[in-house]
Amino acid sequence: MEPRYISTRGGVEPVDFLSAVMMGLADDGGLLLPSEMPDVTQELSSWRKLDYPSLAYEVMSRFIGSAIPEADFRGLIARSYATFDVAEVVPVKQVGGVFIAELFHGPTLAFKDVALQFLGNLFEYQLARTGGRLNILGATSGDTGSAAIHGVRGKAGIDIFIMFPEGRVSPLQERQMTTVPDPNVHCIAIKGTFDDGQRTMKSVFNDIAFKHKFSLGAVNSVNWARVLAQVVYYFWASFRVTETTGASLVQVTVPTGNFGDIFAGYVAKKMGAPISRLVLATNENDILSRFFNTGVYSQGAVSPTLSPSMDIQVASNFERYLYYRLGKNPEKVREAMATFAKEKSLTVPGSDPDFAAGRGDTESTLATIAKYYREAGYILDPHTAVGVSVAEKNLREGEPMVCLATAHPAKFSAAITRALGADLAHHPTLEALKTLPTRKVLLEPTVETIENYMAEVLHL
Ligand SMILES: *Cc1c(COP(=O)(O)O)cnc(C)c1O
Questions:
Q1: Of the ranges 91-95, 379-383, 429-433, which one carries the lowest mean pLDDT score?
Q2: What CATH number has the domain bearing residue 310?
Q3: Could you tell me the residue range of the domain that residue 249 belongs to?
Q4: In the chain, how many domains are there?
Q5: What gap in Å lies between CA 168 and CA 177, rounded to an integer?
Q6: Which residues are annotated as catalytic?
Q7: Does residue 329 belong to any structural domain of this protein?
Q8: Ligand 1 mean position, distance from CA 348 (Å)
Q9: Residue whose CA is at the smallest distance from ligand 1 atom 8
Q10: Residue whose C-alpha is closest to residue 255's, from 136, 102, 128, 388
Q11: 334 found inside a domain
Q12: Which of 202-216, 283-297, 362-376, 445-459 is the least confident region?
């Protein structure tokens, strides 16, 4: 059976993989999901022996079917991970009492490269086959924007527009976007928060006439191809750690913002990856950790923290999880989302044994960075440190803890300096950015302003 994709809200005819990827957000305002989750428990012992690109092929091809011929797809994966600076792509290291899966070896030094290098190549491949054009619109709290830009810079048939909250991303994160000279890259600083940007983006995508006229595509974590590429490293890391320790299952802790990364872990677990439980870690913006501990998903105000890529109160991928939690019932999802839109809060009874959750505040983030440096000589970035601090409270006998390391510490030198008393984390890629010229425009986060700007740039 060919994989088919449905909307969480039930209002879209089932589509194939490439249509799902090109659609981004579903046309009914929901999110796309595979209609069936493949069960791969029979494959695990052979998959353990594979290198990263081969494993990526096996995991992802289950969701792609015949949409892309095997040789093309293997080539596409090879190109996507050749830009990483280590052969393993995702090294897994024992550090103190936990295992760190380093997801930051791509061009922008954050885990989003794992998905966005792949997505850029996928878009390019598909546009070359169809002769189409694509205009990507994204909203970022920091890392998505630069990873998306580096995924598509210079690619034919693609323009990319990235909104980021002015003054709320780290100076280096901003430079990783605004120093890219390719003419298909357009950086938009918005006067507002990340949530303002995300809401504006969703509204532009909900303007169906505009979406079609401008061939709009998404790279935010709502795009199914991004989730899919992230599923791979849950298998990879759990294989490495079960091999090293002899344990049969591992826990995985995930520093969480938009629920994209951890949703990929949920998919991997559903498919049969050797994972006992996912540990969700948030910073002070804790809507998700509150949800998993109380059943109430209620929006607070966004407060800036040391881990800006997790400064999110409305998690765009949460609806995908909700679909499963509400018994795969689109009607219930529509109701829940309508309640949330009206009341900024929704409640789901019961709990989910697949998840534990906790929050790491500024103090524990700094203390965790200091502790791991002191005891293991390893520098955690502040996002990873939020995860590790929550992981330490959720250790279980006989189930090794894998902590996803989502960024290189050199991206967040202010936090590192605060934690360690000196700016000890460096990376040559970032040093090189400091002297390059930058480009951006400053705009209001309204649908009209953004649509007008795109029309002007694209002469449409
Ligand atoms: C995006 C990001 C996160 C959060 O990931 P989500 O998929 O949004 O939950 C965590 N850490 C870093 C460094 C990130 O860039």
A1: 429-433
A2: 3.40.50.1100
A3: 92-109+225-425
A4: 1
A5: 14
A6: 112
A7: yes
A8: 24
A9: 258
A10: 388
A11: yes
A12: 202-216
